[in-house]
Write a structure and sequence with these properties.
Distance between the termini: 50 Å
Largest sheet: 4 strands, mixed
Number of helices: 5
Structural class: alpha/beta
Strand order of the largest sheet: 1-4-3-2
Shape: elongated
Order of helices and strands: EHEEEEHEEEHHH
Helix content: 25-40%
Strand content: 25-35%
Radius of gyration: 18 Å
């Protein structure tokens, strides 16, 4: 059976990034740190090439692939949170050390990786069939940076 692994391209920061992400997500760990057997455009022989790690049970690979590759908004990692406390935990954790807030629950961490930090309840609302409530919450969300669960729920109920 195959397994999907998300690979993050970094420029010499694979080990640092893996440790950072493991500090933000519960039930996370670095599994292995592997050295390059030969010189590459990134690391030289004997330097860290890849770091395999898990974030809350999901497999990731940090690759010291070398310079010149940047992330875009075309791919992001989404965290669906149970409540505001979880949103705040991931938001603050991923911004630590030089991240940047964007809009609508999006942020860019210090390594350039794009994240969406959103409440699970937002997806439940979108799938509820109540188009008016969904439109009100979505309109309010478009003006937010960090998502505010209470404000989204109030908008859905029609309370300003």
């Amino acid at each position: 059976m195959s397994r999907f692994v998300t690979c993050l391209w970094l420029d010499g920061q694979a080990e640092e990034a893996a440790e950072f992400y493991c500090s933000v997500f519960p039930n996370s760990r670095v599994i292995s740190v592997d050295e390059s057997p030969v010189d590459t455009p990134g690391p030289k022989a004997g330097e860290v090439l890849t770091v395999e790690f898990e974030l809350d049970g999901r497999a990731f690979l940090a690759l010291n692939g070398g310079p010149g590759v940047e992330y875009t908004d075309a791919i992001s990692l989404e965290i669906r949170c149970a409540d505001q406390a979880e949103i705040d935990h991931y938001w603050d954790g991923l911004l630590a050390g030089g991240g940047r807030e964007v809009q609508c629950g999006w942020l860019i961490d210090r390594y350039g990786v794009r994240w969406q930090v959103a409440p699970e309840s937002l997806y439940e609302l979108w799938r509820s069939g109540d188009q008016a409530a969904t439109a009100r919450a979505f309109t309010v969300m478009m003006d937010m940076v960090r998502l505010d669960v209470a404000a989204l729920e109030a908008a859905a109920r029609g309370v300003s």
